[in-house]
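CORE FACILITY INTAKE
Project code: CF-77B
Contact: R.S. (postdoc)
Sample description: multi-component assembly, two entities in total
Requested service: structural model of the whole complex
Turnaround: standard
Below are the sequence entries exactly as provided by the requester. Do not edit them.
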Amino acid sequence: MRPLDPAIKTVWMIKLALGWGMLFFAVLIYDVFQLFDQDRWLPFGVMSGLVLLIGGTLTLVLPRLRYRFWRFDLRPEELYLERGIWNRVRTIVPLRRIQHLDVSQDVLERNFGLGRLIVHTAGTRSSDVVLPGLRYEEAERLRDEVKHYITEDAV
Amino acid sequence: MEALEGSVGPVETLTPYGQRLHPLTLVQRVVKSLPALFFILFFRSSDTENWITLAFLLLYGVFALPMIILQYMRFQYWITPREVVIHSGVLTRRKRNIPLDRIQNIVIERSLLPRLLGTAKVKIETAGSKTTEGVLEYVSLDEAQRIREIVRSYQRQRATAAPATLEAPAEHSPAAVEAMAQVLFTMTLPRILLSGVFRFSMLYIALIFSGLQTVMDPLNLTPEQIAEWLRGDGLLPFTDAAQSSPWLLGIFTVFAAMLLGWLTGIMINLTKYYGFRLWLEGDKLHRRHGLLTVSEGTIPLKKVQSLILRSNPLMRRFGWYRLELQTMGYDVEKQGYQVAVPFAKKDEILELASHIRPFALPETFAPVSKITIRRTFIRYSMTLLVVLVPLAYYWQPALWGLLTLPLLLYLAFLQYRNHGYALHDDILYIRRGVFQHYVWVVPVDKFQVFYTAGSFFQRRLGLRSLVIDTAGAGSFRFPQVVDVGAETAEAFIETLYGRFQSHFAPTAP
C-alpha cells in the first residue's frame, strides 16, 4: 500500500485556502457595509472572524487527514484505492475493466510537479476513478503500465 | 437507391442525390407547428393591438412555413452498404456518418398522425453515444422497415462471416427470419388490464388530490357544496349520508381517488403495453408494444448487464413480477432499464429468462446486520422531526404526527426483512425495498468495480456497505448491500472478486 506524494497536501491546502478566502472576502465586504448600520444584529467582525476561524482550521486540518487516509496499490490484476475521512471507501478496479486512461494536471499541480491518473470504466458510478497526488512521471508510468491490460470488450 | 446496389468495396462514393424524407413529412411538420399558431391567434389578451397579431402571423407565414420546406429540401440521407449518411440543416449544415456496425438499435416509432398517414419515425441508436444518433422524421413505413432490414442483414452477415471469409453473404429471406424468431412473451388483453389494476401508484392519488385542490380553492368550493352539486336522483341517499357524516365523505373521497388511480393505471398500461410482444431473433431481443404510439426496440443479448425483478407488496402477494433488463449504452430515458416483461408470474419469467440469462432465484438470502433496523429507524425519525418540529411551531396539533413513530419502526423492520444478498452459481442476487421491491440478478462476468464503504457511524457500529458497480446502472437505484458486519462484508467482497477473477482466468472455458 502506497501513500500519495506529500506535496499534494500543499496543493489541497492552497485550493481550500482559495475557496475559503473568497468566502471570507465576501463576508468581510458584507460586514464593512453593515459597519455604520444602526441596528445590525452582530458586532463588526464576528461573521468574518468566524469564517476565518472555520476556514483556517479546515484548511490546516482537512488536507492532512485526507492525505493520511489515502492509500493505493497497483497489483497484478487490479488497482486498489482506499480513501475518505468521514466515509471510508475501498475500491477495487479490475484492470481488465478499464476502458481508457487519462493523466491530467492543473496549474497548481504543475507547479508542484504533480499529476493525477484518471481511470475510466463502463460502470455508472465509477465511470471515472481518480487517483490524485502522484508525481507526474509516476502517473505517466502507471498509465503506461496499466495500458497493456485494456481489453477490447470491457463490457 | 443506387447506393444500395453498390458492392462492398474499400472506397465508396455517395450518389449526388440522396433519399428524401416522405413528402407527407411537410404536412406533419405543419400540423406540429399549428399549436403555436393557434396560441398566437386565440390566446392573446384582449388589449393586444391587432397589428401585433398580424405581425406574428406574418412571421409565421414568412419564416416558419418556408423554414419547414427548406428543412425538408435540405435533408438528405443515404443508406450505403457500410454506413448511414445524413445531411441536414438550413443555416448550419450537418453531415453525419453512422457506420452500420456501430448501430445498436433501430427504433420505428409511429404516433397517431404518422399512423394515419402511413409514415414512421426512424431513430438510429448507437453504442457510443447515449442519445439517439440520427432521426429520420418521417419516412414511409416500407422505407423504415427496409432501413431496419438493411442494418439487420448487415449485422447478421457480419456475425456469420466473422469466423469465415466474406465470400458467402448469409442471405435471409424474410420468411427465414420469421422462422428464426422465437416468441418469448406476449401479453393478452386481460393480462394487460390486470397489470393496470396492480399499477397502484401513490403518485396518481397525489395528482388527483392536488387537482381537486386547485379546482376547489379558487372557486371557493367546500366539500359540502360539491356534495350538494352531486345530489342527483340515484345518489340522493348516499349524499345525504355523506353530508350528515363528514368522516364518511372523507372515506368516500379516498375510495374515489383510489379508484381513479387504478383507472389511470389501467389506462396507462393499456396504451403502453397493448399488443406487447417480446421475441428473440438470433442474439437480439426485439420488443414491440403500444396502442397509440407503437414503439419497437432491440436489445442485443450481450449488452444485457443485469436482470431486475420488480414488484410491489400487492403484486408479490399474488405472485406477479415485472422483469427489467439493465442494458449498456443507450436509452437513458429509463436509466438504462428496459422493461422486458411488464407483468408475469415468477415461473413464466424464470422460463423466459433462460433464453436471456438463465438464473434460479436462491431459496435463502443472507440477511444484513440487525443494527440496520435501528439505523433506518433513526434516519426515518430524524426526517419526521425535521418536518414536524417547524410545523408544530406554527400549528400545535402537528405533534400528533409523532404517533406515526411505531409505524416507522415497523417500516424499518420491513426494510431489514426485505433486504438480503446471495451468491449462487456465479450470479449475485440482491433484494431490497418494501414498497418498490427489487431483486437484482447480476452475473459475475458483468461486474465492473467493487466498493466497500463505511461512514463514521457505520464504522463505530462495525458495519459496512457493499456496492457492485455495473455498466448502465441507475444513479439512484443500483445494487447495493447496506449495513453488513465489517468482517462479513470484507470476506464477501473478496469472494465476489475471487469469482470474478476465476471467471476470466485463462484456464476457464
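Facility notes:
- Chain B touches chain A at residues 303, 305, 328-329, 336, 447-456, 459, 467, 469-475, 478, 493, 497, 500-501, 504 (CB under 8 Å).
- The longest helix of chain B spans residues 246-273.
Invoice: internal transfer
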